[in-house]
């Protein structure tokens, strides 16, 4: 990235300013749509439809008009979420609209008010998985046993050994079954080698062996690194050798269960502000959205291996880590 001259920086700042103003006014137009439709203003002005009116007046697409009206219809009996929509714009509550009910209006309004759209989207998805799973478990509809092995295969996608792109062909529950059918796009040579390794055994046993070897390799390197870590770190920056080892553990993928997003942030589960140490056993690679949720206190079992992590409805009270996170958020914003 090149440094801008004074004149270039001024033009850029003006462009940003106008862009923010444009967003603000388009939000205002979205909020006025139901009233425009109710009064049929478009008809009185000679337009053939609300779509034509919105397109010619403010260049709003038919899709955006439909989505806005649909969301307003959903928000009629949810006053708290509607308030957030007026404060932050309709898009800010979009992920919560499909899950919120009259009873949970206040709960989702609080989440929409404090989260960005991406974080809220991820939280809604994880929330659905967690509580749908709990409901199914209570009904004894299925048994979850050894799903983490399948999940780790997704993290190994580009690791040495030739495992290529994989997509789930069959998954009939909110969580992993003991057995899953997967598709692997592999080179012919790799397929032949794997078949030789499998021999007269089965694919599941072979994959478990490969995972065991892979885990051992990552763990060996991690233990070597731990021996060189000072008791107290000089700065918040995580040393390169530790970063590389942590990202390698999931092959650059977020470690939250079933998340396939790229890991962008190294998260200290013990909070660096408390430990002042970069312990690779307590640093996890997360995507930005799951990192945001972690610092809002909305991830359970954070002190356990990441395969046990789940979202929670509220932060745990009297947890010192949550107190630290709240202070950091106050400082940032």
Written account of the structure:
There is one protein chain. The protein is mostly helical and 333 residues long. It folds into 3 domains: 16-138, no CATH class; 145-226, no CATH class; 228-333, no CATH class. It has helices spanning 6-39, 41-44, 50-58, 62-75, 79-88, 94-97, 105-114, 117-138, 148-155, 188-198, 203-226, 240-249, 272-275, 288-294, 320-332, and strands at residues 166-170, 181-184, 265-268, 283-286, 299-300, 310-311. The protein has a two-stranded antiparallel ribbon. The longest helix is centred in the first third of the chain and has 34 residues, at 6-39. The protein is globular. The protein starts with 5 loop residues before the first helix and ends with a helix.
Average pLDDT metric: 82
Q: Biggest sheet, strands in spatial order?
A: 1-2
Oligomer: single chain
Distance between the termini: 27 Å
Q: Write down the Rg.
A: 25 Å
Number of strands: 6
Structural class computed from helices and strand pairing:
mainly alpha
Give the overall silhouette: globular
Binned strand content: 5-15%
The percent range for helix content is 55-70%
How many domain regions? 3
The number of helices is 15
Which ranges are low-confidence, i.e. pLDDT below 50, for 5 or more consecutive residues?
A: 139-148, 156-177
Name the helix and strand elements from N-terminus to C-terminus, one letter apiece.
Answer: HHHHHHHHHEEHHHEHEHEEH
Taking the sheet with the most strands, its summary is: 2 strands, antiparallel
């Amino acid at each position: 990235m090149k440094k801008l001259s004074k004149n270039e920086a001024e033009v850029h700042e003006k462009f940003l300013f106008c862009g923010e103003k444009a967003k603000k006014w388009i939000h205002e137009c979205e909020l006025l749509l139901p009233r425009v439709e109710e009064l049929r203003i478009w008809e009185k002005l000679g337009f053939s439809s609300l779509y034509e009116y919105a397109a010619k007046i403010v260049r709003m697409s038919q899709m955006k008009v439909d989505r806005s009206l649909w969301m307003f219809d959903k928000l009629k009996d949810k006053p708290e979420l509607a308030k957030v929509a007026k404060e932050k714009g309709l898009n800010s509550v979009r992920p919560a609209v499909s899950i919120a009910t009259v009873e949970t209006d206040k709960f989702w309004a609080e989440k929409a008010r404090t989260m960005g759209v991406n974080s809220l989207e991820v939280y809604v998805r994880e929330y659905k998985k967690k509580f749908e799973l709990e409901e199914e478990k209570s009904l004894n509809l299925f048994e979850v046993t050894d799903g983490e092995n399948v999940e780790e295969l997704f993290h190994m996608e580009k690791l040495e050994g030739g495992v290529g792109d994989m997509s789930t062909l069959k998954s009939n529950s909110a969580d992993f079954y003991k057995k899953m059918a997967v598709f692997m796009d592999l080179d012919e040579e790799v397929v032949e080698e794997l078949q030789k390794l499998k021999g007269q055994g089965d694919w599941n046993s072979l994959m478990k062996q490969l995972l065991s070897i892979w885990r051992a390799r990552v763990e060996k390197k991690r233990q070597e690194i731990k021996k060189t870590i000072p008791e107290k770190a000089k700065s918040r920056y995580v040393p390169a050798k530790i970063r590389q080892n942590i990202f390698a553990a999931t092959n650059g993928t977020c470690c939250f269960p079933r998340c396939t997003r790229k890991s962008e942030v190294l998260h200290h589960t013990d909070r660096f502000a408390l430990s002042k140490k970069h312990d690779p056993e307590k640093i996890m690679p997360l995507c930005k959205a799951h990192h945001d949720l972690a610092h809002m206190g909305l991830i359970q079992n954070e002190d356990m291996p990441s395969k046990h992590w789940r979202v929670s409805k509220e932060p745990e009270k009297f947890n010192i880590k949550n107190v630290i996170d709240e202070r950091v958020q106050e400082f940032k914003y």
